[in-house]
Amino acid sequence: MSQDARGDAGTDKRPGDLRRTGMSLKSDREWDYELDRIIDAIEERDAATVGLQFPEGLKRRAPKVADDLRQLTDGVRFLISGQPCYGACDLDTELMRRTDVFVHFGHSPMKESDKIIYVPLFSNVDPFPIMEEALEELPDVDTAGDSDVDDRPAVGLVTTAQHMNKFGEMHEWLEERGYAVETRRGDERLTHEGQVLGCNYASADVDAETVLYVGGGKFHPLGLAMEHPDKHVVIADPVNNVVDVADTEKFIKQRYGAVHRAMDADSWGVLYCTKIGQGRWEMATEIVENNENAYLITMDEITPDRLRNFGCDAYVNTGCPRITTDDGPQFHKPMLTPGEYEIAVGNEPLDSLEFDTFHGTW
Amino acid sequence: MSQDARGDAGTDKRPGDLRRTGMSLKSDREWDYELDRIIDAIEERDAATVGLQFPEGLKRRAPKVADDLRQLTDGVRFLISGQPCYGACDLDTELMRRTDVFVHFGHSPMKESDKIIYVPLFSNVDPFPIMEEALEELPDVDTAGDSDVDDRPAVGLVTTAQHMNKFGEMHEWLEERGYAVETRRGDERLTHEGQVLGCNYASADVDAETVLYVGGGKFHPLGLAMEHPDKHVVIADPVNNVVDVADTEKFIKQRYGAVHRAMDADSWGVLYCTKIGQGRWEMATEIVENNENAYLITMDEITPDRLRNFGCDAYVNTGCPRITTDDGPQFHKPMLTPGEYEIAVGNEPLDSLEFDTFHGTW
């Protein structure tokens, strides 16, 4: 399908084209900030200072949420985190230390704590129209005959924290259309049954050749397909209004390109991320201890600008895998996952390349 | 003097033009990393982990310094800070917590601590050729007569941490040329007699109408001239090989421009910087408590990207003043110093505008 806008487009729609879908009306999303639950926690703990942390896309709402909370309280000081935030693994621990109650918006809990209130902020986008379109990519259901329940085609179902509130409905919806829906919770890094993170696809380890991913973007289904190469991963993206099938070929080529460019490196920067849920200390120190040309560099945000000042020939990122695999091409030097590093230095064969994932909390 | 390159330039030199000065040979500077002192501290404290922090311009040297230290020790783990660093006020406290000894390179001590080794890294650029040129901008000395010592013209002398190792020689050099050289230490934020920081010019509060600043860049002398508007500030810049006189007019216009643009703001982001030596908590909270349209935002690095996600109409920076006054124009919304904020909201008159400075340590 052409990527160009076509004024006379028929049934073809480009990814993100929300015209004639009814969905464009929903672009002005409303969120439930669960103010009552926050106020309860403030009163229960008699909090004098409260920290508020939002992911990047929702930071703009912070002043209004602070206004609402100020109206509902008396003499409580609200502090808004200005640190970048990309997940429940990425809590502003500095602000947490400074406050009596710390509210983390936009992600589901990674680890319960007495001080942290997680407010997940579920999307109110309707996933069913795009799931309807995605049926074409799922196994055929024998609609004519009255086949046995045991013969129904199996389909795995996963989604992101944002759409988790509709997971039960999605499950039922697929069952009604004749599928045996396979789901599981994954490991303790994941809060919910069927939930995936950019760094954890354990919930897709189900007894089904096809997995339906309902959610925004291509990064999650790509990771899922890399982590489970035997599975057919269908994308129903209700945010960009597009159906697709995860294709790992381009991704794998990009990763091998980075590995090959790093093979000549004389010096390695080994990045240890100090964010609370993104540190893999053993992994980072083991690399440095076994390579005299490797240097341990610690930081919270891992950005191209920050690495530009160091003169290493290549980098290994033991922090968030998304930085390596999604932002990787933005760095001026090759940036590898720990597994890719082992290939580049010759400790592991080329065909051992796989997606970098995180398990456990902290 | 024209800012354009002139192939047939005679005696005119553009700032930064190091041709025919002999100084271009010195561009490959050597630094003394004081490895012996670091090794002594490691042995004395029987340290297992050592943190190394370099300012931005010297981060490239970090792997080589780590190599040298590894050769001189046995079984010690060296961690390099990847956090941006812009001064002795800007210690990587996260890395400090994780290490037994913490070495901060490139700045003079702001506050002594048992764990921190400060290695100042003095420049080996020769300041005297450019000081010779700067004599033209200093008060005339009566070289013909044999005037009394008490009649010698007074000149204040200040420099940055980088050139502090030559301060005594500079002092003598000026005295030999007939000046009464006035210097003082300033307050406890400053380590040395005659030292200035971008945020502190207390050492220039001397009994002399003319102050000679020896050092790189225009930011320090500009701050000095703003902080001491009654003084004539002469710049002898041995790094860029240029003599100049600090002119605050353009700077003041830029600041008033920001203040005026901020006067219509309906919402204010009040930035509290969490860096150890850059926090002004009382100042930040006082603003928020007296303005219901002000929101307290906490972060370590204050960058245009980080503020872009917040929807405030204007910002007040209670952290490093250089961010406001030097980087200010890069932000998408007006960014004011705390003093400028008071003008913008009408609490102080327009003519109260002054340079934002920091006093004390933490």
Automatic annotation (TrEMBL), chains A, B:
Coiled coil: none annotated. It comes from the Archaea. Its cofactor is [4Fe-4S] cluster. Keywords: 4Fe-4S, Iron, Iron-sulfur, Metal-binding, S-adenosyl-L-methionine, Transferase. The keyword S-adenosyl-L-methionine applies. One of its GO terms (molecular function) is 4 iron, 4 sulfur cluster binding. Pathway: Protein modification; peptidyl-diphthamide biosynthesis. Residues 1-22 are annotated as: Disordered. One of its GO terms (biological process) is protein histidyl modification to diphthamide. Belongs to the DPH1/DPH2 family. Catalyzes the first step of diphthamide biosynthesis, i.e. the transfer of the 3-amino-3-carboxypropyl group from S-adenosyl-L-methionine (SAM) to the C2 position of the imidazole ring of the target histidine residue in translation elongation factor 2 (EF-2). This is 2-(3-amino-3-carboxypropyl)histidine synthase. It comes from Halalkaliarchaeum desulfuricum.
